[in-house]
Amino acid sequence: MKIGITQVLANSDADPAVVAKHAEDLGFESYWLPDHTILPVESSTGYPGVKPGQKPPRTLWQIPDPLIALSRASATTTTIKLGTGICLVPERNPLLMAKQIATLDDASGGRFLFGIGAGWNREECEILGGDFDHRWSQVKDHIAAMKVLWQDEESEYHGKYVDFPAVRCYPKPTHKPYPPILLGNIGSQLAFKRVVEWGDGWMPVVDGVEQFAAGVQQIRTLAAAANRDISTIDFTVFGMHGQFRRPEQIKALEDAGAGRVILWLKNLELDDILQELNELADEVLNN
Asked: Which of 25, 59, 85, 108 could form a disulfide with 115 if both were Cys (CB 3.0 to 4.6 A apart)?
């Protein structure tokens, strides 16, 4: 079982270069960062991570850019995988994003994992150019365009949301044919179909092992019907604050089909994070 960690605020006070290096030294498999370019002051959409009426955590609008922060982490590490958990694809220009990701993957020796999502905040999405009501259709189009940019010497794409003539976009990713694309999911049944049709993996937030196991079974059923080799699909569980931090819980996820679990670091200050990593390693890596 691969065990990764996610850091909410990878900023100058909790340097991702230091945290990722320490995680690598301890034996963690991957290091993940979230994405919110902005967060509107007024919003019609409630944050799904809290109860109705509760305010979202302040950290949501303090998140650094994940690709830049992961680039910093890549400079001090050599083996740990570097992932977005998750990147809000409709809110980014796909040509620019393709180049940024290829550059990061090339510089890190093919260590990037592209965890993606469509976002939950309407105003945020629309301010940044997303089509919120059809955001997963937009994600699919953006990903298809990026795959062309990552693979073809001369790239050309004509879709609904992305349309460009023949261009050259370099460098190409080191990971071939491109970095794994893992679809985040917080409840949509349509995610299973998307994973089988054009994704490389499923990375849900779940209430527990039973919910995850049910999703794995649905993906297996869809993959069999589509003649998709199930071994080509990555199953990662994205643990929320305090989830899946005991060995028996991780073993239960593994038995249910998970190949990776990502653990949420609770602390925000650098010294506290490093100590938390030490304690987590003793609990889940050294037992």
From this structure: 85
Instruction: State the alpha helices, DSSP H only, in the chain.
Output: 16-26, 66-76, 94-107, 122-127, 135-151, 190-198, 209-225, 247-255, 270-280
Q: Would you state the torsion angle of the CA atoms of residues 206, 208, 212, 213, taken in this order, to the nearest 10 degrees?
A: -170
- Contact criterion met (CB below 8 Å) for 272 and 14: no
Report the run of H or E that residue 201 belongs to, with start and end.
strand 201-204
Q: Give the C-alpha separation, 229 to 278, whole Å.
A: 38
Instruction: Please report the pLDDT score of residue 283 as a whole number.
Output: 96
Between the CA of residue 191 and those of 45, 61, 165, 185, 250, what are the distances in Å? 21, 26, 31, 7, 23
pLDDT of amino acid 49:
73
> What is the pLDDT, as a whole number, of residue 164?
98
**Chain centroid to CA 28: how far?**
16
- Distance (Å, whole) CA 266 – CA 147: 35
Structural domain count, the chain: 1
Q: Kindly give the parts of the chain with pLDDT less than 50.
A: none
Of 155, 226, 172, nearest to 197 by C-alpha is 226
Secondary-structure breakdown of the chain: helix, strand, coil percentages, each rounded to the nearest 5: 45, 20, 40
What CATH number is attached to the domain comprising 72? 3.20.20.30
**Residue 247 belongs to domain spanning:** 2-285
The pTM of the full predicted model, rounded to 2 decimals, is 0.96
Would you state the structure tokens that stand for residue 253, as one six-digit string?
């996820």
| pLDDT in the model for residue 37 | 96
- Residue 53 has what pLDDT? 72
Listed in sequence order, the residues at least 6 apart from 143 whose beta carbon sits closer than 8 Å to its beta carbon are 89, 116, 181, 198
**How far is it, in rounded angstroms, from Cα 125 to Cα 130?**
5
Residues 59-112: tens digit of each pLDDT: 888 999 999 999 999 999 999 999 999 999 999 999 999 999 999 999 999 999
Cα separation, 160 vs 156, in Å, equals 14
